[in-house]
Amino acid sequence: MDFTTGQYLQLIIALFSGVVLFAIAYVAPVRLIVTFIVITIPFQPIMSIYGSINMVLIYLAAGALFVRGKMRLFPLLGAVLAICFAYALSLSQTLRPTYFDHLLYLVSVGSDFLVFYLVYNYFREEGDLTYAIKLFVWVAAIVNAYFLLSMLTGFHHFAILGIQELSLGQNIESLKRLVGPFNAPGTNAEFLAIQILLLSYIFLYETRKSRRAILFVLMAAALAFLVATGSRGGFVALLGGAMLFAVLFRKKLGVMGIVRAGIATLVLGIVAITVIQFTQFNVLFERLGDTQFHGVVPDTRVGVFEQTWERIKEEPLLGHGPRIQLLNEDERTIPGYRPLGGYPHSLYLFLLYTVGVVGLAAYLVFFLALARRWASAISVPSDDALLRGLPRLALVLVAVFLASQFRIEFLRFLLNDYQNYLFALWGTLLAFTDRLGCGGARETKRQASGVMEKPRILVPKRNTEVAIPQKSIQADN
């Protein structure tokens, strides 16, 4: 097999990085490992038809931390195993020549749940909410910088050292839409909507003027880039999320907060108009104005929805197989295999087509279990206002995500980076919610004041976690 320069570079970097990270993970502080994993999630320097370097690094880091005894809590394990079982059932129905394609996809999806447990275990043990907030603000800032470079690049294509795998400028010129780091305008728009709501929550509780200014600039930039993606669904998701945010945080906002929010909305509106008037990415409001609906389905989705639904009816229970598009699908002839020919542009149709009713139910159970954990912690008292409001924020974000996924699917193979980010976010929010339910706020305050107690394994009342017992547990430095 002949390899291009880019493929040779991928192989060398993958092997070197894998050996180095696995060795480092044995001795490095867990904070360093978690920080590196989360910060690099949005950026896939090596992405091939077999997966990304980030996916490999997640497997290596999770394996090393498991051996070290740093991954011992597995919340929602029943729901996760149900998802695995649904994938196994669907895989059993596929044709033998397609096994390799589906297995590659399953390995990719497996990294989502590994990063979920990796991040959950660290923040559940460490309990440093301030650092977690900073980590995700850093991600927002770095991604905004990427969007800015992509916008400045415009519709030109720029590859570092001529290597296509290290390229910038994949924007869609014919549609005048900004793509960004997550490979699809709609996906990037959803990410930016979540970022704006997350930053709004931090802004709400931040008291230092300098940091509030930085947060507002990040929010304004994220809105500008969201408008530039031209994604109607992302924009509508943000509006719906903002209304839900206002309802759940109305007491914290108060009258003056609502006034300030109105002023901020005006400023952000000016930012959006500026993008429309002075950049090449100016189609959002035109697309919104031209949108027509057939029932609740936008006119641009009717054909693909109907086509997908007809194929779903062929295998409604277990689906057609975990992966919706095979490797080099157009160039292969597989007896008995009929490709769908594209993506359904809806997570729910995607799951029904790939893993059937069983798989869709398993994923819904997982997300509903997350929402139930967050909802049950809303009324838990805590002296830490930032921690106390976190369950409400989590509910806002997961509601926006699930509503937005009606018009796009985050489980595409090429969106593994976005999947990893979401599961890292869910794991972080769940970790602090569970700490809140177990008196984590008081423990965090004792640690901050220098009073350390012997760490212990916290066992919830309900049988919703699996804990692997350890002979000894040492706090990470």
How would you sum up this structure, described in words?
There is one protein chain. The protein is an all-alpha fold. It is built from 18 helices and 6 strands. The protein has a two-stranded antiparallel sheet. A two-stranded antiparallel sheet has the order 3-4. The longest helix has 29 residues, at 250-278. It is globular. Residues 160-166, 439-464 and 468-477 have low confidence and may be disordered.
Summarize the structure.
By secondary structure, the protein is mainly α. It has helices at residues 5-27, 30-40, 53-67, 77-92, 99-126, 129-153, 185-205, 209-229, 232-248, 250-278, 284-290, 302-312, 347-354, 356-376, 385-388, 390-404, 416-437, 440-448; strands at residues 47-48, 51-52, 158-159, 167-168, 293-294, 297-298. It has 18 helices and six strands.
Biggest beta sheet attributes = 2 strands, antiparallel
Approximate shape: globular
Tell me the strand percentage band: under 5%
Number of strands: 6
Distance between the termini: 47 Å
**Can you give the mean pLDDT?**
82
SS field, number of helical segments? 18
Uncertain regions: pLDDT < 50 for 5+ in a row? Answer: 160-166, 439-464, 468-477
**Which structural class is indicated by helix and strand composition?**
mainly alpha
DSSP helix fraction: 55-70%
